[in-house]
Amino acid sequence: MIALDVLLDPALLQSIPRFLTPILLAALGGALCERAGVFNIGLEGFILTGAFCAVLGAFFFGSPVMGAISAMAGGVLMALIFAEFHLRRPGDPIVVSIAINLLAAGLTLYLLSAIFGVTGAFRDPGIQGFAMIHIPVVRDIPVIGQLFSGQSPLYYIALVVAVAMHFFFRFHRLGLRMRAAGENPQGLVVGGVDPRIVRLYALVACGMLCGLAGAQLSIANVTLFVDNMSAGRGWIAVVAVLLTRGNPLAVLGIALVFGFVDSLSFRVQGYGAPQQFTDMMPYLATLAVLIGLSFWRKTRQTRA
Amino acid sequence: MMATDTGFAARLGPWVAVIAWLFAILLVLMIAVGASLDQAVSGFFNGAFGGRNSAYLMTTIGRSALIIGMALAVLISFRAGLYNIGGEGQLVVGGIVAALVGIYLPGPGPMVLAVGILAAMAAASLWAVLAGALQVYLGVPLLIGSLLLNYPARYISSYLVGHPFRDVAAGLPQTHMVPQGAWIPNFPGTRLDMGIILVLLAAVFTIVYAYRTVPGYRTRMNGLAPDFARASGLPVKRLVFQTLAMSGAIAGLVGAIAVFGVHYRFSDGMLVQPLYAWTGIIAVLMVGMVPWAVPLSGFFFAAVQTGAAGMERTAGIPKEIGLIMQAAIILFVASRLAVVNLAGSARGEGNDDRA
Q1: Distance from A301 to chain B by nearest Cα, in Å?
Q2: Rounded to a whole number, what is the distance in angstroms from the first to the last CA of chain B?
Q3: Residues of chain B with C-beta less than 8 angstroms from the C-beta of A225
Q4: Cross-strand bridge partners of residue B174
Q5: What letter would DSSP give residue B289?
């Protein structure tokens, strides 16, 4: 077993939000789609586009905020393409998602060579990344300080969005309509609301959140863009959404687990484990969580 | 969901619009990098079908063999209603096993080749069955489970060629070369390997199996009407494993062909980066899972990829334009055909009571 002092290692705690934030942001976007009845497994492509556009904005405008804004714009563009082919035309969402993922992989590399004249990766001191936010007082509290201070602004945004989305689905009119679009679209039609419009809103917001997830990868965790930077995080976010059926607070919990495993495997690498094994950990952890939850549901069903 | 067709012109109209859209996208992309149109066009056709002694055409055919192979693996499982999108992992497992057998098994070349191919098929088959077991026994939807297994396959193979089995002198993360005796021979006078014959055999097998055998019939029934299949007492679980085993075996065969016929070794990422598995999926989706059309769409996408490489050589257009075009084609075509309904069936898969 891993000793407790390793688990409470300040450096480990400090790194959890880095890994958690992209998955949380993307999964929250996915939760909107899930609740609104859009089966969106193209999060990977949304994130990748966001990561690229973030570098684009941060480089040309020289500010991380502009980077985040252009990341959102990139994510929204992908969301609109998704909407055009899935909502306005009768495209199957899985087919559209696969196409979106390929499109993002191709487009980011194409523009990388077209705009910066490089292949594979772009790093430049001109890319302005986010500065970490250090909160006075809080940063001196053990454990809490490492988890909540000295992090990227996008992390705090992600936490706020998770909580806000919980109330949005409960109380906000649009939130309620999104749930109706997912659970009983005919009811919405009877109420004079076109479910497709509601789903469009969900997709656009999902694009923004996934864009920010990409920005966290490319202008907060590091300041560069590399080929296939999203590296499967979109799929882990999809799993988080499916597991929680789009419940934002549960998404937060799952993202915390994945963030913890990620940073743990990152630490283990420091003790000499080969990089490939630590790279593999998040996916094995995801499978383990999937299996565990399905057992838990099964036992609960038999008891009930 | 198909519109009611009134006549030939009405049916043709939308397709003209699709082609116009695709050309518009191509043009915008080319203008963005300042490439000239005639260079791009000639580069595309030369890259896909030309070259000295038709060398590029042979590359296109060789690549289409791999893509068609992956498409067959997809076809066999998708038609059974099993959304195995983990072809990439199965391909990689097949490739690495083929390479290791090829390098370390002593004996005459043809025997090494045969054992290598069979071992690759068996290993990839197991990898696919693992995804099936996750669904059947542990409630992990196949769509997700098969995909997540891509990553361990990728990283384990990357570790194996990066550390224990690395050809250290070569400097790159790759294995030693397979002895020449075990290579799949080229067609005389060309640079095209005979692996395509194996793929064609697999294709014939797939079609005969699906349409002329009882398990094939049951598998199709399970795909088209799962409730009926279950109600009529078919061994649904066994069908899942049978189908996935075959699907994985074909992916493994493709991995072995890539090793014994094309690269003669396994280097890190060589089966992942060209996106063979994903291209196989879209080649199947584009033709609405119609078996006889799959070789055509496989060849078409192979030509788009090698043509794009040609455009990069002659007109300086980044070759990723091929990827963008593939995605655009799928978007425009899939949204028109609307013959597949993956999402509907994929959603119900994880339910414990059904599995």
Answers
A1: 10
A2: 29
A3: none
A4: B267
A5: T
A23, A157 Cβ separation under 8 angstroms: no
Q: Does B3 touch chain A (CB under 8 A)?
A: no
| Structural domains present in chain A | 4-130+152-294 (1.10.3470)
A109–chain B nearest CA distance, Å: 6
Which domain, by its residues, includes B80? 60-348
Q: What is the pLDDT of residues A237-249, one digit of tens each?
A: 998 998 888 999 9
pTM: 0.89
- DSSP letter for B177, please: P
Q: Is B150 within the bounds of a domain?
A: yes
Model confidence band, residue A159 (pLDDT cutoffs 50, 70, 90)? very high
Q: Cβ contacts (< 8 Å) between B138 and chain A: which residues? A: 290-291, 294-295
Partners of A99 on chain B (C-beta within 8 Å) are 282, 327-328, 330-331, 334
Triad A155, A157, A161: Cα angle to 5°? 120
Residue of chain A nearest B352, judged by CA positions: A298
Number of domains comprising chain B: 1
Q: What is the ipTM of this complex?
A: 0.87
- The encoded tokens of residue B250 equal 């074909």
Say yes or no: B309 contacts chain A, CB-CB below 8 A: no
Q: Residues B216-262: pLDDT tens digits?
A: 888 888 888 888 888 888 888 888 899 999 999 999 999 999 999 99
Chain B residues in contact with A41 (beta carbon < 8 A): 143
Distance from CA of B3 to the nearest CA of A (A): 11
Distance of residue B101 Cα from the nearest chain A Cα, in angstroms: 22
**Model pLDDT for residues B168-189, shown as the tens digit of each residue:** 887 788 888 998 888 888 888 7
Whether the pLDDT of residue B129 is over 60: the answer is: yes
What pLDDT does A42 receive? 94
Here the CATH number for the domain that contains residue B79 is: 1.10.3470
- By DSSP bridging, strand A121-123 and strand A224-226 are antiparallel
Token code pair at residue B75: 């076809």
| CB nearest to A283's CB, from B134, B148, B338 | B148
> CA–CA distance from B107 to each of A252, B95, B181, B247, B256 (Å)?
56, 20, 10, 29, 18
